[in-house]
C-alpha cells in the first residue's frame, strides 16, 4: 500500500476480508477534525453492505488500497450502522465540490479560487493517515472552459472546513453517476436534506427519475415538491407510469392535477389510468408498458425488442402477444412467450405459433395476496393483466409485488435496525 491515497478514487471499490470474501463497497471516508492547526486525520472508511447498511471500517484494519479493491486485515467487524460524530466530516459528502481559495506558496497575494475535486491523504511516521493534499479545479470565470486541476498542500487551502453553502455538486454527481440508481438513492439518503435537494436538482431528468423510483416515499415527495413544477412534470414523464402514479398519490389532489396537466398528454394518460384503480390490486401495482408484440412478429424481432437497454430485466423476461394495437390497452390478448423459449426457436419463427396460453391472466381487481400466490405457484416473474374485453392493460412484475408487499418504510435508511448475527465488534 502506498503512502499517499486519493479518496475520491476509492469510491465504489469493493472491500474484501482476508479470506477474499466481499464485505461491501466503499462509500466515503471519515475525517476527524482536530483542535490544533494540524491537518485532519482520516480515521476510517464507510462501507455499504447488503441491505443498504453503512458501517465504519477503522483505517487501522485496512491493509491495502489500490485501484481495484480495499482489503481488510480482519473479518471481525462492527455491524452497527455508521453515525457521524460531531467532530467528524465525510470526505465525499462534505468536502468534495467545496469552493475554496488556494493561497500562493509564498503567502503573498489574495489566492486563487477553485473547487475541490479530490482529497489526498498521507501516512506519517506514527501510522496516521492525514489530509495533506487537496486537488482543486481552478475557476476560470468562463462557462465554456474548465479550469485546470492542480494540487495544493492542505495548509494553503482556505474554506475547506466551513459552511456547506460553499459547496457545489458537479464532482459528487460525477461519482454518483457511476452507481446503480438504487445505490445512488442510497447515497442521497445519507446526505443532509438541503444537500440532497441540491444534488437532486442538478441531476438530469432521466437520472433523477431513476433515483426517485428507488427512494422512500417521503424523500420522493420532499425532492419533487422543491423542483419547479415544469421540471417536476418532466421528471414524472421519465418515471415508469406505475412509479409516477404511486408518487403522485402521495401529493394533495390539487397538486396532482397541476402536475398531470403539465405532463405531455400521452405520458399522463397511463398514469391517470393507474391512479383510478383501487389500492392493493393488480391495476394499482402493474406496469402499463410491458413488451407487447403482434402475433405476426418474428422471434428475431422479439429478441431485438427485449434487448433494448432501457427495459428492466423483469419486463424483458417475456413478450406478451396481442392483436393490434401494441400499446395498452391492446387488442385481444393471445398469450406470452418467455425469452428462454425465444432463444430456442429459429429467428424466422412467428410469435403466434409460440405463445403459452395455459396461465390465466389477472384482472385489474385481483388483490395482492392472490397475485403473490399465483406468481409463486407458477414461478412467474410477470403476469398479464386484462380488462373485461380481454385487452392487455398491463403486467404485474415480481418487483412490483415485492415493493408493495414489504413494509412501506423498507427503503428508508433512517428506520431502526436490529443487529442480528453480528460478528464481534471492533472499537472505534
From TrEMBL:
UniProt keyword Lyase present: no
Transmembrane annotation, as ranges: none
Listed SMART domains: MgtE_N (SM00924)
A single cellular component GO annotation: membrane
Composition-biased stretches (Basic and acidic residues): 407-418
Region (Disordered), start-end ranges: 407-428
Keyword Phosphoprotein among UniProt keywords: no
Annotated ranges, domain CBS: 355-413
Record GO terms (molecular function): magnesium ion transmembrane transporter activity
Gene3D superfamilies referenced in this protein's UniProt entry, alphabetically: CBS-domain, MgtE N-terminal domain-like
Key words of the record: CBS domain
The protein's name: Magnesium transporter
Organism per entry: Mangrovihabitans endophyticus
Amino acid at each position: 500500500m502506498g503512502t499517499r491515497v486519493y479518496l475520491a478514487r476509492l469510491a465504489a471499490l469493493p472491500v474484501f476480508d482476508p479470506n477474499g470474501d466481499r464485505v461491501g463497497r466503499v462509500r466515503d471516508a471519515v475525517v476527524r477534525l482536530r483542535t490544533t492547526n494540524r491537518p485532519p486525520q482520516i480515521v476510517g472508511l464507510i462501507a455499504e453492505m447488503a441491505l443498504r447498511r453503512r458501517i465504519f471500517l477503522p483505517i487501522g484494519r485496512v491493509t491495502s488500497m489500490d485501484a481495484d479493491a480495499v482489503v481488510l486485515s480482519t473479518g471481525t467487524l462492527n455491524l452497527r450502522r455508521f453515525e457521524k460524530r460531531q467532530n467528524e466530516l465525510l470526505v465525499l459528502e462534505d468536502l468534495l465540490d467545496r469552493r475554496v481559495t488556494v493561497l500562493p506558496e509564498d503567502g503573498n497575494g489574495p489566492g486563487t479560487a477553485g473547487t475541490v475535486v479530490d482529497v489526498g491523504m498521507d501516512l506519517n511516521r506514527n501510522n496516521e493517515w492525514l489530509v495533506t493534499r487537496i486537488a482543486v479545479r481552478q475557476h476560470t470565470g468562463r462557462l465554456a472552459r474548465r479550469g485546470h486541476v492542480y494540487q495544493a498542500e492542505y495548509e494553503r487551502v482556505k474554506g475547506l472546513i466551513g459552511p456547506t453553502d460553499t459547496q457545489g455538486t458537479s464532482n459528487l454527481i460525477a461519482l454518483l453517476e457511476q452507481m446503480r440508481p438504487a445505490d445512488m438513492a442510497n447515497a442521497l439518503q445519507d446526505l443532509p436534506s438541503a444537500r440532497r435537494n441540491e444534488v437532486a436538482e442538478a441531476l438530469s431528468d432521466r437520472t433523477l427519475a431513476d433515483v426517485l423510483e428507488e427512494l422512500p416515499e417521503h424523500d420522493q415527495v420532499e425532492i419533487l415538491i422543491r423542483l419547479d413544477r415544469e421540471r417536476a412534470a418532466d421528471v414524472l414523464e421519465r418515471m415508469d407510469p406505475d412509479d409516477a402514479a404511486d408518487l403522485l398519490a402521495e401529493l394533495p389532489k390539487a397538486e396532482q392535477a397541476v402536475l398531470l396537466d403539465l405532463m405531455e398528454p400521452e405520458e399522463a394518460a397511463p398514469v391517470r389510468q393507474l391512479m383510478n384503480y383501487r389500492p392493493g390490486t393488480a391495476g394499482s401495482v402493474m406496469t402499463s408498458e410491458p413488451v407487447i408484440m403482434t402475433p405476426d412478429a418474428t422471434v428475431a424481432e422479439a429478441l431485438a425488442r427485449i434487448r433494448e437497454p432501457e427495459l428492466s430485466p423483469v419486463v424483458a423476461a417475456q413478450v406478451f402477444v396481442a392483436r393490434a394495437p401494441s400499446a395498452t390497452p391492446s387488442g385481444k390478448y393471445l398469450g406470452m412467450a418467455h425469452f428462454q423459449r425465444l432463444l430456442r426457436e429459429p429467428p424466422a419463427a412467428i410469435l403466434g405459433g409460440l405463445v403459452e396460453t395455459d396461465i390465466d391472466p389477472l384482472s385489474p381487481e385481483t388483490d395482492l395476496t392472490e397475485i403473490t400466490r399465483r406468481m409463486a405457484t407458477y414461478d412467474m416473474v410477470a403476469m398479464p393483466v386484462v380488462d373485461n374485453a380481454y385487452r392487455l392493460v398491463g403486467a404485474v412484475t415480481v418487483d412490483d409485488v415485492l415493493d408493495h408487499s414489504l413494509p412501506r418504510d423498507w427503503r428508508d435508511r433512517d428506520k431502526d435496525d436490529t443487529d442480528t448475527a453480528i460478528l464481534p465488534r471492533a472499537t472505534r
